[in-house]
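Case study.
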Amino acid sequence: MKVSVGVSNRHVHLTNDDYKILFGDKEFTKRNDLNQPGTFASELTVTIKGPKKEISNVRVLGPNRDYTQVEVSKTDSFTLGIDPPVRNSGDLDGASEITIIGELGEITRKAAIIASRHIHVDKKIRDELGLVGINTVSVKIPGEKGGIIENVYLKDSAEAYFELHLDTDDANAHLLKQGDEVEII
Amino acid sequence: MKVSVGVSNRHVHLTNDDYKILFGDKEFTKRNDLNQPGTFASELTVTIKGPKKEISNVRVLGPNRDYTQVEVSKTDSFTLGIDPPVRNSGDLDGASEITIIGELGEITRKAAIIASRHIHVDKKIRDELGLVGINTVSVKIPGEKGGIIENVYLKDSAEAYFELHLDTDDANAHLLKQGDEVEII
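After joint prediction, the assembly is written out as follows.
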C-alpha cells in the first residue's frame, strides 16, 4: 500500500519547564500546522550546541511534551560532534548530551537522538489498512537512488495522519521530498 | 558476497588545463593514497560555489583527468542551491553549473553531479566473483537503519580495489562508515 513521505529536518521538543528557561513567558506562537493533528511548527528557533560545533535556526515544535528531545540526522551529529542513538520519539535511553540555547537562557540535557524511521497510524488506519498487530514494516523507494528501507516503526496516536517520517539523511540519500509516495511492503 | 564500503565526501577532479588556472605551476602533492590503485587525495582544496552558498575545503583528487567534475551529495546540493543529476563518473550530461575557486583563479563549469552508487571492479574480480556481464547489483545493508540499495553500478577499470563507493548521504542514512562490510545480492 502507498504512503506519503514527510521529511523531518532537525527539530526540538521542549517540556513546559525547559520552555520557560529558554523563552520565559513568551507566547508559543504557531507558524504553521504540521500534518499530525494538533501539532505545529512554532515561530521559535533555538541553537543546538555539541562539543564540536553548533547549529542555529533549529525549529521548536509544539505543543510542549513531557520530555525535552532534540532530533538530528547522522550528518548533523558529525557537525555537532555527538554520537546519538537511533530511538523512537520519547525513548531517550542513551541519548546524547546537548546544549539548547534560547532567547533567555540555555539548558544542557541528555536529549539528542536520531529518530527511527516511522509511520504515523491510529486504530482506524490500522483497521482499514490491515496493519493490526504489526510493529515494523519495510518500505520500497522508487527512483535512481531507490531501494528498500527496513525497520520502519508504526507509531500509534489517538488520531494520526497516515505518513512516513524520514530524516533529511534518509530523504536525501533516496532523493525523496515531502509528499512523495512510496510503497509499504 | 561481501564488499567493503568506501565513503566519498564531496570532492573535485580537474583537467590539467583547469588545474593550471586554479593552482598555476604548484606541485600536485599527494596527501594520501586512495584504495583505487594510482589514485590519491592531494594536499589541495578548493571552494565550490553555487547560486545559494559556497562550501570550502573541498578536496582535489588526483591524478588529473580529461574532464573536470565536482561530486556532491544531495544535502550539499541544497546548501549550494543547485540540482545536479545522478551520474556515473565521467558522464556530465546535464551536470549543474558550479564555480570552483582555487588559490590563483576560479572557473565555472557544468561539472556538478551526484555520483551513482558504484562498486569498483576489474576483469579479474569479475571472473573470480562471477560478476561477468553484470551492469548493476543491489546491496543489503545491515543495522538499525538498514535495508537494500538498488542501482549500484559495477565500474570497470584496468586494476581495481573491490569496494562499494557511497556518498555521505547514503552512508549517513544507513549509519555506514568507511570499511564496513555489506552484502551484494
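Observations recorded in class. Residues 94 and 170 of chain B are 22 Å apart (CA to CA). Helices of chain B lie at 16-23, 74-80, 123-129, 168-173. We will return to this complex in the next lecture.
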